[in-house]
Amino acid sequence: xxxxxxxxxxxxxxxxxxxxxxxxxxxxxxxxxxxxxxxxxxxxxxxxxxxxxxxxxxxxxxxxxxxxxxxxxxxxxxxxxxxxxxxxxxxxxxxxxxxxxxxxxxxxxxxxxxxxxxxxxxxxxxxxxxxxxxxxxxxxxxxxxxxxxxxxxxxxxxxxxxxxxxxxxxxxxxxxxxxxxxxxxxxxxxxxxxxxxxxxxxxxxxxxxxxxxxxxxxxxxxxxxxxxxxxxxxxxxxxxxxxxxxxxxxxxxxxxxxxxxxxxxxxxxxxxxxxxxxxxxxxxxxxxxxxxxxxxxxxxxxxxxxxxxxxxxxxxxxxxxxxxxxxxxxxxxxxxxxxxxxxxxxxxxxxxxxxxxxxxxxxxxxxxxxxxxxxxxxxxxxxxxxxxxxxxxxxxxxxxxxxxxxxxxxxxxxxxxxxxxxxxxxxxxxxxxxxxxxxxxxxxxxxxxxxxxxxxxxxxxxxxxxxxxxxx
Length: 472
Description:
The chain crosses the membrane at residues 7-29, 440-466. By secondary structure, the protein is an alpha+beta fold.
């Protein structure tokens, strides 16, 4: 009887040890299975989760616009006063709803090329008014004239056309006109073959952002979705050296197994450059653990603060000898137009940039850019891209509409918030096919290991107690 009991205790201990060992063995094996599955599903080829969502996003993406309504246009024109603005919005459009086109797979180089069609559908229910709401805004054509045509004689000719068209530094325009284009009365008088239509995003509808070429990740998972070329160019050729490099992905996804220490680099055609985000916090998004990566202030820093930005400083006057920060001159990729990009309300910009403007209230929560990335797959499940469009306006002695100015202005025209969040149905599918399996496997590993250890320890203690009692 004693032998049977001892044998039972020993057998129990052995079973416990086996379970513990099996649980321990299952951990690396499980991790290997997870890694193998993820590496298969994130490759951009037909049949994978990544490809399905890459061709046409299952997430509804919206662009909200806030227009800067100028309150004192005549004071600015006459006295070169501070520009008082009040933001009006949001005016919301659904974007990124069209599937990628001209998708071509290069199996030899493991790349995929495509174009992304652009389209915008107004969403009245998500807007404060209609597209016909009218506000006082900067006259884009008049403001750009002295930059595009610096010759004094040409400016005299342009001035006569500006006066004849009764154009001024500021104008009243509807939201639809300002965003998507209007026939400008001043440009309509120019007797040269130039585009007569002006708009912050003109042309947009029925155009395409591309051609892009990205790596599929088939041969190297660490390159998946990373851009190889944009519009057929490996470099943008707008700036020398580092600044013209296309780094990273399009921000929709990143190579898998993202760590908090990684710097996520992505290219944005809106700002004609690659930029980056750094880890900010851990977030739970619809039951899915994600890492929030945020655009740091150093991305728009001056060359003194961030030497990597040295080639974005293209002139010395407006930038105050490259000491100003928080704005980016992208005129070289906007056909020479004086376009400057910043974060909304000049968030993280040097005080001299915002000093001539009244009515701005920068706020980190409302005006910063972030990406919520699921770290195992590298998929971006939620994002908020926030940018402000500004125009540099300089005094021009030969143009009456601008000759009263006594200082340079970087005038905010509007700011946008482009957002997208994984839908409930997609989130459920993601939990089932990815996080659910990973969590289940992890739970099995822990249970086997825990039960095995408990059984082993319990039976060993019982065996020792039994032996001790027998000796007595």
